[in-house]
Specification:
about 400 residues, mainly alpha
């Protein structure tokens, strides 16, 4: 008798594919300069999904990625991305942003508003044709959601890129983190506005009130317990906030971000936090990338989706660069700084994908719009390192004589 493949075995085959294929492509083709491993994993998820290999080999897709396997993968992906967003919230240094609020406010504001405006215009152009707005999405929600997706900067990926460029702990890197951190707060605030459900406004108000009260209690507890215990309490706090936010209709990702944002990063050992973030990125986030790829669809035809992605990419890149360059002129930055900062803030993978996933979950956008946004996020992230590297070298070369004098 032949052995019937079990769900557990199919799950492990899927995990084997998830971890081996992107890694081998990244390592064998040496894509690090233009496509870091995280980008290869996202693209790998798209290729392994129903839109590409699933369409070419439907039997493979139906066997490996059956509904029970996808359900198991989604469970891993949800928890992984909740932890990652929690860490992103924890990394926010709002005290530093407040200490340098004028420069930070001007730069972060322009870096957010300009791509938001151009992205919203691009969304209005897309909505001239059907197929982009979800069943539950009102026009203002779709326009604001797509516009904000164009304005997002992925703080965790930005940190990884700046670490690779050796500027994360330097003054320029800390400036960029301040700008991105303030924009992150605005992004989640806008998301909460988009998801506001007037039928559940009482429940959502109750969540915010309860969250504020419990935040005071959790912060008081964190100050009194050892650092080792703080990690366990933080994960309990994360799960509770995610559940409460989802129950209130705001989505569990909003709760995950808020649960980290209200805690102080200095309560946790920096080196241990970096190792924890890297472990989550290596061991769990590839499952999220694959599950994201499984949601890519080409219902409207590949040409229309690619056309929309190109339009959104232009709006996103041009808007971010225009906003940062305007800030550089107003604040009288040194030549070359605005270009480096503007391109560093182009990193969109992860946070933008999470943002778009939520819009898709809530029926604000369609699978086609989600796929276009996903392609835009991958494109903007892939552009960052190749374009920033030579500009950063020129900027550092220009700064060297200034240090010597």
């Amino acid at each position: 008798m032949g052995h019937a493949v079990t769900i557990t075995e199919l799950f492990l085959i899927a995990m084997l594919i998830i971890f081996s294929v992107p890694y081998l492509i990244w390592r064998l083709f040496r894509t690090e300069h233009w496509a870091p491993l995280v980008v290869v994993q996202i693209v790998g998820g798209i290729l392994l999904g129903p839109g590409v290999l699933g369409a070419a080999f439907p039997a493979y897709y139906a066997t490996i990625f059956s509904p029970p396997v996808i359900a198991a993968l989604n469970g891993v992906a949800w928890w992984a991305v909740m932890i990652f967003v929690f860490i992103a919230g924890l990394e926010l240094d709002l005290r530093q942003a407040w200490a340098k609020r004028e420069e930070t406010g001007v730069t972060a504001g322009l870096a957010l508003v300009a791509p938001l405006a151009l992205g919203s215009l691009a969304a209005l152009v897309m909505l001239r044709w059907p197929g982009w707005a979800g069943e539950d999405g009102q026009t203002w929600q779709v326009v604001l959601g797509i516009g904000m997706a164009c304005a997002v900067t992925a703080l965790p990926i930005l940190m990884l890129f700046m670490e690779k460029l050796d500027i994360l702990r330097r003054p320029l890197g800390q400036r960029v983190l301040r700008y991105a951190s303030l924009d992150d707060v605005a992004i989640w605030g806008v998301l909460a506005l988009i998801l506001l459900d007037w039928e559940r406004i009482g429940r959502q108000g109750g969540f915010l009130l309860g969250f504020a009260v419990l935040t005071l209690a959790v912060r008081a507890l964190m100050r009194r317990i050892p650092e080792r215990d703080r990690w366990f309490v933080a994960l309990i706090w994360l799960a509770g906030c995610g559940f409460a936010a989802d129950w209130a209709g705001l989505h569990f990702m909003v709760g995950a971000f808020l649960s980290g944002a209200v805690l102080d990063a200095h309560w946790f050992d920096r080196e241990r936090m970096d190792r924890f973030r890297d472990a989550v990125l290596i061991a769990f986030m590839p499952v999220f990338f694959l599950s994201t790829g499984l949601r890519t669809q080409w219902d409207m035809g590949g040409l229309a989706v690619f056309g929309a992605a190109a339009l959104l990419l232009v709006a996103s890149v041009a808007g971010k660069l225009a906003g940062v360059h305007l800030a550089g002129r107003l604040l009288k930055w040194r030549p070359g700084e605005a270009s480096v900062i503007g391109w560093l803030l182009q990193t969109k993978a992860l946070i933008m994908i999470i943002f778009a996933n939520i819009l898709l979950d809530k029926g604000v956008i369609t699978n086609a719009a989600f796929t276009a946004l996903l392609l835009m996020a991958v494109g903007s992230t892939m552009l960052t390192i190749p374009i920033v590297t030579p500009r950063l070298k020129r900027l550092q070369a220009a700064e060297s004589p200034l240090r010597e004098t």
